[in-house]
Amino acid sequence: MQGHEHYVRQILAKLSAEPGGVPLVHRDTPTTARRLADSVISAAARMREHGVGPGSAVAVLTNPNTPETLILRYAANLVGATAVHIRGVNAVDPSDELSAEAQLGILMDVRPAMLAIDRDNIARALELCGSLPERPPVAVLGGGGALPSAIDLSAPGDIDLTTAEQGTIAVVTYTSGSTGKPKGVSWPYAVKNEMVATSAVRGDRARCLVTAPLTHSSGATADDTIVAGGVVVLHPGFDTAEVLRAVPRHGITRLVLGAPQVNALAEHPDAANTDLTSLRELFYTGSPAAPERLAHAVKALGPVLFQVYGTSETGLISLLTPQDHLDPELRATVGRPPEAVRVSIRSVADGRELPVGEAGEVCVIGRWQMAGYWNEPALTARAVRDGWVHTGDIGHLDEAGWLHLHGRIADVIKVKGIKVHPSAVERVLLEHPGVEAAAVFGVEDEQRVERICAAVVPRDGVTLDRAVLERHITAALSANHVPAEIELRETLPLVGPGKPDRMRLRTEAVARAAQAEGTAS
């Protein structure tokens, strides 16, 4: 991977080759290739003037899904620094911002050489810097305004692209994962360089609609689209009706969504009357994805669905193609690993490799995986052993090489001597015609006995009967899989595409139980 050219130079070369092109559209406002390239180069020149380079970090704080987010990352990387996004850890919802306290914790961990922001985050930057023992210089893209001491990253500048440098780590993205404490997933320059080089060769000129945060995996999607001569249309978040309108308006050929968002599109009343003929690829991530609802999505949206299974740490692990989606049995899997990815199912107890068909931890050696967790050597050592990333997911490979997921190691619930995988119960709930979304989790009572709890979102206009849901689960699984509590709610909190925040739901359930006990006494 070391032989590939610096990924930002690859992107700038593409922009300079087609200066009149439009690689970005934000709020229906186009950004030309020339303007994007000039903005990156000017910002990089100013960063270098102020001592930013290999070995240093630039903390990036911008509004969600704006050109500024890409410009500041490209600029920091062009001078060889590490770009660290501090706005949020939510990989699904761009509007979900970390508290100032949490952002301060990341800054204390990173100790950046510069805090690079857009104009809308000047007040937050002042708040953060006022609490830091060592205040980094603040640089603003678009001018400092109320912060006259700030470095203006929009001031014209130039940089010799032949001297573009690179350190070891290009990007750090913080994710809450399932533990709650943000972890900085570190991506090396070598990985970024190869990913972009691969996309540049493909040159498919996709028109990609981005609704998930550019600070997370959608940032790589944007890089790949731009270097391949395509267009990235930025939305501030996912709105079903807006996405349906955007596809014909912008001739969108590629979408990247979470599994629940695919269902929302397919089941929206306007979907049948919307011209989706331009759409060639709809990649979706997250789990669970109920096979019956996938069948409906294929019928409503066409043979365009690609299910991607991966993690922040590994990148792509397996893929279910549009052709695979036509097979009812394969829709219950997450596809097969590509040739460049090695998957091993290992015993949680002793780490030995398990035979075909036996469930264990999914371990991966990926083509494009993380270098480790930022400043967390012990955590990295636990997650990556002998080159294998231990995902924490439970699954098995069948004889044909298809990967089946059962849930998370930490989420398994022990009820009356049996192990209940929450994802199995969630899939059954999602197959009920009145259920829009569902999350299942375990809660211990005062006797340290686990009980199953479920949070369920009804479809619009549907009144759900808990007893009906209980019978539905019993018929599909067993009485032991029926939740002791089923909470009906309007939405589910998420920590990733289609991934319910079970920790938050568990905390809320414990609080409800404590309140009920206090009321009873």
Automatic annotation (TrEMBL):
GO terms for molecular function: ligase activity, forming carbon-sulfur bonds. Residues 24-374 form the AMP-dependent synthetase/ligase domain. PROSITE patterns: AMP_BINDING. Residues 425-499 form the AMP-binding enzyme C-terminal domain. This is AMP-binding protein. It comes from Streptomyces asoensis.
